[in-house]
Amino acid sequence: MDYVGHVIRPPSEAYSMIIQVTVGCSHNMCTFCGTYKGQKFRIKDMATIKRDIDEASRYRFERAFLADGDVLILPMETILEIVGYIKKKNRHIERIGVYANTKAILKKSVAELRRLREAGIGILYQGIETGNKEILRKIKKGAFPHRMKEAAAKVKESGILLSQTVLLGIGGVEMSRAHAEDTGRLLGEMSPDYASALTVMLLPNTELYRDFQAGRFRLPDKFGLLEELRIIVENMDVKSKCLFTSNHASNYLPLRAVLPDQKEEILELLDRVLKMRDERLLKPEHMRAL
User: Fold this and answer.
1) What is the pTM of this model?
2) I need a labelling partner for 274 at 20 to 30 A (CA). Which of 72, 122, 230, 286 fits?
3) SS3 64
4) How far apart are CA 38 and CA 173, in angstroms?
5) Which of 187, 177, 270, 283 is CA-nearest to residue 226?
6) How many Cβ atoms sit within 10 Å of the Cβ of residue 130?
7) DSSP β-ladder status, 242-245 and 22-23
8) Is 254 helix (H, G, I), strand (E, B) or coil?
9) How far is the C-alpha of 167 from the C-alpha of 180, rounded, in Å?
10) Domains of the chain by residue range
């Protein structure tokens, strides 16, 4: 397989066929992300992509994921050609997923998104990080809440599943509550099919880490992060069923619940953990990872 650099994928795609279609990220400005630093965004040539699909097709997969971080930004015909070739070579593939930032989603019409769904794209993974406009500006996310809502609505209308992620701790200590409240409300308004809370990991090659070293950014402690998680869930009034998780390797307390059905159950669990403040209930530091 022609994998270049660090090829990342969502945890839920662990057993999928991973085809690297692009190298890097077209935005590549987020202050917390160190994945693609020093890497220029480019699209791989179709011959290389198809060779990788041929190689991976020796094995049976039920799902595929197109990496790296920005495949949806590609022209429609390019995506359709890749998806069509995967389906041609793998009759067992049931769903193909891609990362999709807000800008990339907004560049596609609902009709185009429906074409992608009909071709085989079954899920889009959209990084939200926070629902707070000031924090989004600070972390150079390149999108604000009203545009994220617009993008989410287009995906939902198209029939493609929508999975969104947010980052615990991204507002620092100073904006912890504002971050959590605004993020919960925004997730509720967008009502994705899946939502996941990850925890900020301070990486040495990032602007956020330099802010941390200089004292300009302070990360909440373990229980401060769990308090954020509780506030997010409390404010997350979804309009349809959403599988909410915090079981990423970066998190201290793994959770999995269907909202709104299990909302009170999750809040009660978080209240108990926050009241006890017993670190033995949390994931040990050495077991956390990106």
Assistant:
1) 0.94
2) 286
3) strand
4) 30
5) 270
6) 25
7) unpaired
8) coil
9) 9
10) 11-277
| pLDDT tens per residue across span 115-173 | 999 999 999 999 999 999 999 999 999 999 999 999 999 999 999 999 999 999 999 99
Give the residue from 102, 99, 136, 117 showing the smallest Cα distance to 16: 99
Question: What secondary structure does DSSP assign to 77-136, as a single string?
Answer: HHHHHHHHHHHHH-TT--EEEEE--HHHHHTS-HHHHHHHHHHTEEEEEEEEE-S-HHHH
Q: What does the DSSP 8-state code read for residue 19? A: E
Question: Is 142 in a helix, a strand, or coil?
Answer: coil
Contact 129, 136 (CB under 8 A): yes
Distance of alpha carbon 103 from the chain centroid? 14
Per-residue model confidence as pLDDT tens digits over 223-278 = 999 999 999 999 999 999 999 999 888 888 999 999 999 999 999 999 999 999 99
Q: Is 289 exposed, middle or buried (0-12, 13-18, 19+ CB in 10 A)?
A: exposed
Output the six-digit token pair for 233. Answer: 């869930």
Overall average pLDDT of the 13-25 stretch: 94
Return d(Cα 129, Cα 143) in angstroms, integer: 11
Q: Please state which CATH number belongs to domain 11-277.
A: 3.20.20.70
Position 97, amino acid: G
Nearest to 99 by CA among 16, 168, 203, 174: 16
Cross-sheet strand order for the sheet of 194-199: 17-20, 63-67, 95-99, 121-129, 161-168, 194-199, 242-245, 256-259
Between CA 138 and CA 16 the distance in angstroms is 34
Strand 22-23 with 63-67, pairing: unpaired
Query: Is 41 within 8 Å of 22 (Cβ atoms)?
Result: yes
Task: Report the alpha-carbon distance of residue 204 to residue 37 in Å, rounded.
Answer: 11
Tokens of 11: 């945890």
Instruction: List the one residue out of 94, 189, 203 whose CA is nearest residue 148.
Output: 189
SS3 call for 245: strand
